[in-house]
Specification:
By secondary structure, this protein is mostly helical. It is 87% helix and 0% strand. The chain is built from 5 helices and no strands. The longest helix is centred in the middle third of the chain and has 33 residues. The chain is elongated, with a radius of gyration of 40 Å. It starts with 5 loop residues before the first helix and ends with a helix.
Amino acid sequence: MNCSQESGLRALLTRLLHELNKANVSLGALPDEERERERQRGEDAYLYILLIMIFYAVLAGGLILAYTRSRKQESKSDPYHLYIEREWARGVRERAAQQELPPAERQQLL
C-alpha cells in the first residue's frame, strides 16, 4: 500500500483501532470465577520467591560458616605457624640471656 493513498491508509488504521478496542473489551469482560482464579494463581508467587531466597541465604551462610571454621582449624595446627612461634620464643630468650635482664623483665618478654 502506498502512503500517498490517504483513504486506504485511514481505513486500515480505523479497522486496526476497532480490532484493538474489541480485544481490550474482551480481556476486561472475564467472568468473576475466571478473575478469581487468575488472582489466586498469582498469590503463591511471593511464597515461591521467599522460599528460594531463604534457600540461597541458608546456602551462603553455610558456606561462609564452613570456610571460617576451616580457616580456624588450619591456623591452630599449621606447622608453619608453630615453627614461627617456636623460633620467635627462642629468639626472645636468647636476646634476654645476652642482655642479662633481671628475671622479672625476662618473664614479661616470654
